[in-house]
């Protein structure tokens, strides 16, 4: 099975041996405190029928067979208070689910909180069945999110992935910046002064990226690669960079933003990211002009509502019409959009 950092990896912390000795002990990982997403769990013998009470919380649940992992969607929706009669009629109906060798016979179940669900096991073996929450809770922190914390990257990054190991991430936002006219600037003011300017830029970008929930992965010349857990955070960081930097600094930045799956790799004493999403962000950035943010049109459309809602000065945003560009290594042209921000007055 492919390891996905944002779905299947649990991050564990322990006390450093120099602080005190810690004994490794195996506890019951299935205890209720460790499984808040599970509503109920029952052993169903072969050819036996067991009754469950549907959860009181009106969200999406699922019925799942442990080990074999067949799951059945289970939607629990409460009727409005003015529909008491209909609700009582529904309560009288018992929902049925049947499990056979090939999986669940029933395709999906819709019920009311507290309603009875009868599950029949028509297999030749006993099974353990659970009713569990379908989605993730807001308090869950995945390994891919923890890796974005600057404090974690500075203290523990080498402990996540050993050199050469890799893990997939299904959703990551990658941002690349580049300083326009830097070569001429080095010639004009000299290496020392120019690098001091670039150093100020690095410090500025790191502060902005971290403020918006991201992390700077590395610098390449005077370019910066940063990653974010969400595309919305990446966009807010990009807009803030363009507004603030161009209001105060002489040289312009161009930014490329892309969202998609990536591969996390442990190398050179840190965690790095590779894959098509990273390549796209870098190549899209190279197409931008001074002060522009460039992204694929699909991502641009997805974020358009977010930008209008969050931006306090919509008139400061200049959005281009979609344009077609050919990117190195891609067989098909890509539709892109760009927008820039005037310096705030």
What is the name of the CATH architecture of the largest domain?
Answer: 2-Layer Sandwich
In total, the number of strands is 18
- The CATH top-level class label of the largest domain: Alpha Beta
Give the overall shape.
Answer: elongated
Treating each run of at least 4 consecutive H or I residues as one helix, how many helices? 8
Q: Please identify which CATH superfamily of the largest domain we are dealing with.
A: Nucleotide cyclase, GGDEF domain
Instruction: Please tell me the overall pLDDT.
Output: 83
Give the SSE string: EEEEHEEEEEHHEHHEEHEEHEHEEE
Domains, number: 2
The name of the CATH topology of the largest domain is Alpha-Beta Plaits
Which percent range fits the helix content? 25-40%
Low-pLDDT stretches:
none
* Proportion of strand residues: 25-35%
| Helix-and-strand structural type | alpha+beta
Cα separation of the termini = 54 Å
Main sheet specs: 9 strands, mixed
Computed over alpha carbons, the radius of gyration is 26 Å
Provide structural commentary.
- The chain has 345 residues and is of the alpha+beta class.
- It has two domains: 37-133, no CATH class; 143-341, Nucleotide cyclase, GGDEF domain (Alpha-Beta Plaits).
- The chain is 28% helix and 33% strand.
- The protein has helices at residues 84-92, 143-146, 150-160, 182-189, 191-211, 231-248, 276-286, 297-310, and strands at residues 38-44, 49-53, 60-65, 71-76, 95-100, 103-104, 109-111, 116-121, 127-133, 166-179, 215-220, 223-228, 253-267, 270-274, 292-296, 317-319, 323-325, 334-341.
- The strands form three sheets. Strands 10, 11, 12, 13, 14, 15, 16, 17 and 18 form a nine-stranded mixed sheet that branches. The protein has a five-stranded mixed sheet with strand order 1-9-3-4-7, with no helix packed on it. The protein has a four-stranded mixed sheet with strand order 2-8-5-6, with no helix packed on it.
- β13 and β14 form a beta hairpin.
- It is elongated and about 85 Å long.
- The mean pLDDT is 83.
């Amino acid at each position: 099975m492919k390891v996905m950092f944002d779905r299947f990896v649990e991050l564990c912390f322990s006390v450093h041996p120099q602080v005190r000795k810690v004994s490794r002990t195996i506890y019951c990982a299935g205890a209720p405190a460790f499984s808040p997403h599970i509503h109920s769990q029952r052993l169903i013998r072969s050819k036996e029928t067991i009754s469950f009470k549907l959860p009181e919380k009106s969200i999406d649940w699922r019925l799942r067979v442990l080990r074999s992992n067949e799951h059945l969607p289970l939607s629990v929706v409460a009727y409005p208070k003015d529909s008491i009669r209909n609700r009582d009629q529904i309560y009288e109906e018992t929902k049925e689910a049947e499990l056979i060798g090939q999986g669940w016979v029933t395709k999906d179940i819709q019920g009311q909180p507290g309603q009875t669900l009868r599950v029949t096991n028509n297999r030749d073996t006993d099974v353990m069945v659970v009713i569990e929450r379908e989605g993730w809770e807001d308090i869950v922190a995945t390994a891919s999110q923890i890796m974005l914390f600057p404090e974690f990257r500075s203290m523990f990054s080498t402990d996540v992935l050993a050199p050469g190991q890799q893990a997939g991430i299904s959703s990551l936002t990658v941002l690349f910046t580049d300083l326009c006219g830097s070569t001429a600037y080095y010639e004009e003011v000299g290496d020392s002064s120019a690098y001091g300017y670039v150093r100020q830029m690095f410090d500025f970008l790191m502060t902005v990226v971290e403020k918006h929930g991201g992390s700077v992965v590395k610098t390449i010349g005077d370019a910066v690669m940063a990653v974010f857990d969400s595309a919305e955070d990446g966009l807010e960081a990009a807009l803030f960079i363009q507004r603030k930097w161009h209001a105060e600094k002489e040289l312009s930045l161009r930014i490329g933003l892309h969202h998609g799956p990536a591969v996390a790799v442990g190398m050179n004493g840190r965690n790095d990211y590779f894959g098509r999403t990273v390549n796209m962000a870098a190549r899209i950035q190279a197409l931008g002009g001074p002060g522009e943010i460039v992204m694929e049109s699909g991502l641009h459309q997805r974020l358009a509502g977010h930008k209008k809602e969050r931006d306090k000065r919509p008139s400061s945003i200049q959005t281009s019409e979609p344009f077609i560009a050919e990117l190195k290594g891609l067989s098909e042209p890509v539709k892109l959009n760009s927008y820039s921000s005037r310096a705030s007055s």
